Amino acid sequence: MNHGIDIHCHVILMGNPDEVIKESMHKLKALINIATDIKEAVQSLDLSKKYPKFVFSSAGLHPEGAASASEKEMDEVLQFIKDNKKHLVSIGEVGIDYFWVKEQEKRKRAEEAFVQFIELSNQLKKPLQIHARNSEEKKTAFSDALKLLTDNNARGVAMHSFSGSDEELLHAVEQGYYISISTIIGRSSKHKRLAAKTPLDKLLLETDSPWLHPFEREGKNYPWNIIESAKIIAEIKEMKPEHILQATEANAAKVFGLEI
Questions:
Q1: What is the mean pLDDT of residues 50-60?
Q2: pLDDT-based confidence at 138, cuts 50/70/90?
Q3: How far is CA 79 from CA 38, 65, 102, 125, in A?
Q4: Quick one: which of 115, 131, 48 has its CA closest to 78?
Q5: Residue range of the domain that includes 80
Q6: For the whole prediction, is pTM greater than 0.85?
Q7: Of the candidates 38, 156, 60, 44, the residue with the CA atom closest to the CA atom of residue 117
Q8: pLDDT tens-digit profile of 9-28?
């Protein structure tokens, strides 16, 4: 039996989503496709209907998009999520990005949008998939995101592709948030350290495919490469890869309420 759930991938952006999904079905238990705007969300929901109990959908607005979205555009995204809440397992990716969003005014707009998504998450009782990315001049995206989450009483939270500090990791875990380790762990000593410090019952796996190939900077990533992550984490935690895949699968099913 296959085990393992890629909780964050972008199969819509891979050019051949059906081929990727069919190959993934031979190797994984499920995947969650992330939509960063309404157009992608509509396509994702179509895939969820086509591959029930294997492709699950999450919808939100990437902070880069949120930073420049008009009030009307934000309202449309929020309404879309409300209208399709039964078919979405999470809201995201949403959050804080200081790498791509550099203007202070746009950062403020993205922050306001993030709070709206947190409030919607609480209202709909849907977990959040959090995007946080630091910049050179301001290395606080993770701490700022965590503060907004705690200040607004966020409930179910998965920190997508976590790459914050050890202290931020500890704070997130103390809040009951889940830590998603991406396949970049294959070429990152920092991510190996973060995985070592993450309790198994709070650990999730993801690829963020088509990006973050585990071994090649420019390689095209695929959902089943979470198996490579599981092998690396298993070595770190002195467990079997199957145990890592099963444990993270159970965590994903719990936080996202997956029926698989």
A1: 98
A2: low
A3: 10, 16, 28, 15
A4: 115
A5: 5-256
A6: yes
A7: 60
A8: 999 999 999 999 999 999 99
| CATH number of the domain residue 26 falls in | 3.20.20.140
Q: What is the pLDDT of residues 180-191, one digit of tens each?
A: 999 999 999 999
Count Cα atoms within 13 angstroms, Cβ side, for 207: 30
Q: Write down how long the chain is.
A: 260
- Total domains in the chain come to 1
Average pLDDT over residues 65-83: 97
Q: Averaged over 216-228, what is the pLDDT? A: 96
Q: Residue 60 is encoded by which pair of tokens?
A: 């939100």
CA distance 252 to 260: 11
Q: Are 122 and 155 in contact (CB under 8 A)?
A: yes
217 CB-side CA count, 13 A: 1
- Which tokens is 254 given? 């719990």
Other beta carbons within 10 Å of 224: 20
The single residue listed with the structure tokens 């759930």 is 5
